[in-house]
Write a structure and sequence with these properties.
It is a single chain. By secondary structure, this protein is α/β, with parallel strands linked by helices. It has one domain (about 5-119): Rossmann fold (3-Layer(aba) Sandwich). Helix content is about 45%, strand content about 20%. It has a five-stranded parallel beta sheet, sandwiched between helices. Strand 3 (about 50), helix 3 (about 60-70) and strand 4 form a beta-alpha-beta unit.
Amino acid sequence: MASVFVVDDDSNAARFLARALKLEGFETAIFGSGEDFLMALETRIPSVVLLDHDLPGRNGLQVLETLQVTGIMPRVVMITGREALGLREAVLRAGATGFAVKPIDLDALFVLVNTALEA
């Protein structure tokens, strides 16, 4: 079974996304910060990560860059509540396989996750 880690400091959004993914058959885990997510990678690497850009501490792009440096590179779909100029291009250049702006349509989310799994 494919696993999806949801990294988002908005606990309501994270629970909503995790619940929707579970109903689609994915195993999920939720992390409220980039640091918590990075520490979890010491014991388990997910199939896909839904990574919020606007996190406290390290933002999503910084977490993505940390993944590249460590050589641990699960497939990442960056999510954000606001799309800043050039952000989509920056995260895709940094290795993300997808990008979505909140609120996320669940059908579009499932397409992004499944596309990431096929990458």
